[in-house]
């Protein structure tokens, strides 16, 4: 394992990512990690970039014990400046910030870090720079603007580079990271998803032991389904999945999830129909944030109550709560902010742990989303489910604008169903990141047959995005939109008009509420 120490750069997680592409396992921890408390010995250490200045009073610094491990060390950007600061304080603010592409000139091609790397484009993002060579180091690469673009210690395998090899704009960056991990650290290239399944099942069995029971909520989405399938593979029916039907799920969702999880995947699932309870609590509420809060709190309440009803046959207590936390959530919660760590509680089930005195089990916490999908496919979960669009926790409640009632939810979910069905038929589902229908709280005049109608409006949304932070609307063919609009108005009572949302994010958000 390679240890990545995170100094807070927006690119830090990409370092782990790139190494995994070469089947090398890496773990990221905050830069303040005490080496004596690590509990394992890394094969090598990478110190990431970061937004701070090493010479600032409150700047984060690495535990000097990293140098006692005797393993190769690579400092990237801030990580390199940290090396320089420790070895002679040769860091100052550059005259101008360097941001964007730059040309790398490799001075020493025989150095194992630069094997197979010639002069190429690298990505820079820094304000501070080295103003001299740190004590005991020599230069092995320069760039147009950085005379100390790559440095190495005269006798120890300690390297520093000013650019970011983890971003794809650094054309040879991946090779450099691999060179570091393989040539210098001799890290094993055996991290595969098949191995992961095997190791994770063993880990779960050891952790849970021969008798304890585990409970977990499923939503019908990819993360909770994959996590549940993995648990089932490990401990069979000692894993209890619960689907809470909150009355604002997609059309026929509870039945569909039951069929897929129970019949298809052999998961021990209980479906709780709490729709009346949720809809009663949502009565009269129009504020989006209030809707979210009510749904989140009611969910915790229902889940706790129903968990009480699940009494394992052998009188065992439920001891663990399964959560489908992914690696990006973990990174967010360990990220270094200021001189101390901030720990964020994940999602809306955080409260369950304290109230129910359960221990947490997170089998996906090492994985990125696309790795979870790959894992799902290996576990025999259908392509359709594995590539399903995300669906928000508050569900259709935030897609019925204004008050949420049973009849309004019914209109919204029927329109949504038709829309998604047509998207699938047109072969567009996998090209779109998320699509759904919203029911607007306005009435509009229409004419059907010889009758004047006065009914509501459906807004269709479809977006393309990689991270959901920014998004573009999907450019459907006009004929496609025409067909969907016609089907919705003809088949869904209560709708007189259909519109298509052509706003990107920003300035709009993906959801309408
Ligand atoms: P926005 O509307 O913020 O949506 O641009 C970005 C992504 O987040 C989803 N979303 C939610 N997911 N609970 C969730 O679990 C929520 O309250 C929530 N609000 C938005 C949205 O569907 C999109 O994928």
UniProtKB/TrEMBL annotation:
PROSITE patterns: GATASE_TYPE_1, GMPS_ATP_PPASE. It is found in: Cytoplasm, Cytosol. It comes from the Eukaryota. It catalyses: XMP + L-glutamine + ATP + H2O = GMP + L-glutamate + AMP + diphosphate + 2 H(+). GO terms for molecular function: ATP binding; GMP synthase activity. This is GMP synthase [glutamine-hydrolyzing]. Its cofactor is Mg(2+). Pathway: Purine metabolism; GMP biosynthesis; GMP from XMP (L-Gln route): step 1/1. It is an enzyme of class 6 (ligase). Residues 191-388 form the GMPS ATP-PPase domain. Pfam families: GATase, GMP_synt_C, NAD_synthase. Homodimer. InterPro entries: Class_I_gatase-like, GATASE, GMP_synth_C, GMP_synth_GATase, GMP_synthase, GMPS_ATP_PPase_dom, NAD/GMP_synthase, Rossmann-like_a/b/a_fold. Keywords: ATP-binding, Glutamine amidotransferase, GMP biosynthesis, Ligase, Magnesium, Nucleotide-binding, Purine biosynthesis. Its main location: cytoplasm. Its EC number is 6.3.5.2. GO terms for cellular component: cytosol.
